[in-house]
Here is the input.
Amino acid sequence: MLTRILLSFLFVFLVSAPPGWAADMRLMLPAACAPGQDCWVVNYADMNPARDKAEDYTCGAATYDEHEGTDFGLKDTAQMKAGVSVLAAAPGKVLSIRDGLPDRQPTKQEIEEMLASAKGCGNGVLVDHGNGWQSIYCQMRGGTIAVKKGDTVTAGQRLGDIGQSGAAEFPHLHFGLFQNRKTIDPFSGTAAEGGCGKSKGSMWMEGIDVDYQPLSIFATGFSAEVPNFDNIRADATGIATSSPSVDVMAFWAGFYGLHKGDHVVLNIIGPDGKIFATQSIEQKEDRSRQYYFVGRKIADPLIPGAYKGTVQVERAIAGSTTEKLKRNSEKQLTVLNAAGK
Here is the structure.
């Protein structure tokens, strides 16, 4: 997560050019992942220039005040450690890099200290594309940066890996695009200072699927104990089978982009089709990443068979009394019989 004050350590502005963007300035996805499948857009650029107000390019709320780019989030630390490449979005020249900062879950105090010392971007790469265009890649994994200052890079070339360095509350890539010091939103091709709801057209290359996603259920899973979200942040795999003699059955879900007022419902449905456990939650505050679970303690052995976990999020559409944005996901767990089958 970044604000304008975080980027100063990397920026070296070179060539001035007229405002607007050239028709041939097309971008590759800056990460080797598929949005909505194994990475998720968590925050878009803030297109509202007013202080203490934030709107993404659709005039929605999938951003925060003074956010200067797009955040591509990963599922867990295990995915980060396995390696997800950061890619140059367009050809250019490396102007600056920073490496050596640790990847970890920072405390609020550590975040404040990094912001004050201009290290919020963490490990990063700044690339100049000519004609006033530059792109920045932040929160990269320490020790993975594969380019050096002065290198010429091609579109799609690996720059390093996604990490959790700097002021990062979860593993993600912060990708920022600028022309003549102005933040440009790649989904609309417009400058942030011009406000939301305007578009010159997407700057992503043809065939790149990055649909607007203001809310995502990025992971679900079962657990045979009360879920420990620190463990899930590390590895969000969950279990696929269970013994009938466990003490607890729980189903959990991870969300990117929950907002105050969102309605979350989690269910566990037994092999007989009946509700085994249910939980209804009203989101109390905006959160970039959030986890919830439903479950119950087990007194008698579980009935063998397939248990299904379901989760649904509903959000009222602004200006409508009937329309709602909905997201659904489900997962299955098999409870084995006494013979382990």
About this structure: The chain has two domains: 4-19+28-194, 216-335. The two ends are 46 Å apart (CA to CA).
